[in-house]
């Protein structure tokens, strides 16, 4: 009886050791890192052909911080700062302003890659306090080359031209790569 219990305990410990080796990863060192630039052109009734985002809800009278505003987007993503460069992905999703006391938005978007370098998607979902110089947002999963990935996207507003155009620098660090 004691011999059988010892065998079960040993088997259990071996299974735990095998599982710990297969799912462990180093949170301090990303398995993939790259920098991307997202380009946004806001729709304003005279740029239908070029617009990549549109406000679909903009309630009035809810404070000074655009609380309740809801924007959808399908933005080109490039490897450099040039809007005219060939896109390597599209950022498709939405944002909404979710705070009445200061400017803060919540982001949900998927980067859809279809290039020679990468195929697949990954999803970014998190709060984005846009007044901060840099913001860390969660990468919560993906498909294709980014299957089940996890990581951090550090956003920095790289260029703002009034209310019509902005460029967002995205420093991507993936910590789970399969």
Task: Tell me about this structure.
- The protein is mainly beta.
- It has a single domain, classed as Allene oxide cyclase-like (AOC barrel-like, Beta Barrel), CATH 2.40.480.10.
- Helices cover 12% and strands 49% of the residues.
- It contains one helix and nine strands, in the order H-E-E-E-E-E-E-E-E-E.
- It has one helix at 2-23, and strands at 32-41, 53-57, 70-78, 89-97, 105-114, 119-128, 135-144, 150-161, 165-176.
- An eight-stranded antiparallel beta barrel has the order 1-3-4-5-6-7-8-9.
- A hairpin with a 5-residue loop joins strand 7 and strand 8 (150-161).
- The two termini are 42 Å apart.
CATH class, anyone? Mainly Beta
Share in β-strands:
over 45%
Shape field: globular
Can you give the helix content as a percent range? 10-25%
The CATH homologous superfamily corresponds to Allene oxide cyclase-like
Strand runs, count? 9
Number of domains: 1
Secondary-structure element string:
HEEEEEEEEE
Q: Give the end-to-end Cα distance, rounded to a whole number of Å.
A: 42 Å
Radius of gyration: 21 Å
Subcellular location: Secreted, Extracellular space, Apoplast
Subunit structure: Homodimer.
GO biological process, one term: phenylpropanoid biosynthetic process
Pfam families: Dirigent
């Amino acid at each position: 009886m004691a011999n059988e219990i010892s065998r079960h305990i040993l088997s259990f410990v071996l299974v735990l050791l095998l599982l710990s080796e297969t799912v462990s990863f180093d949170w301090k060192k990303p398995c993939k890192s790259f920098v991307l630039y997202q380009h946004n052109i806001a729709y304003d009734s005279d740029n239908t052909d070029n617009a990549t985002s549109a406000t679909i809800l903009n309630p009035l009278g809810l404070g000074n911080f655009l609380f309740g505003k809801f924007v959808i987007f399908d933005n080109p993503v490039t490897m450099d700062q040039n809007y005219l460069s060939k896109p390597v992905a599209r950022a498709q999703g939405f944002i909404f302003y979710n705070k009445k006391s200061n400017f803060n938005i919540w982001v949900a978007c998927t980067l859809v890659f279809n290039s020679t370098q990468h195929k697949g998607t990954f999803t970014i979902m998190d709060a984005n306090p846009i007044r901060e110089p840099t913001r860390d947002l969660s990468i919560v999963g993906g498909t294709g080359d980014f299957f089940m990935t996890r990581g951090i996207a550090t956003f920095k507003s790289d260029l703002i031209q009034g209310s019509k155009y902005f460029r967002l620098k995205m420093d991507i660090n993936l910590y789970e790569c399969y």
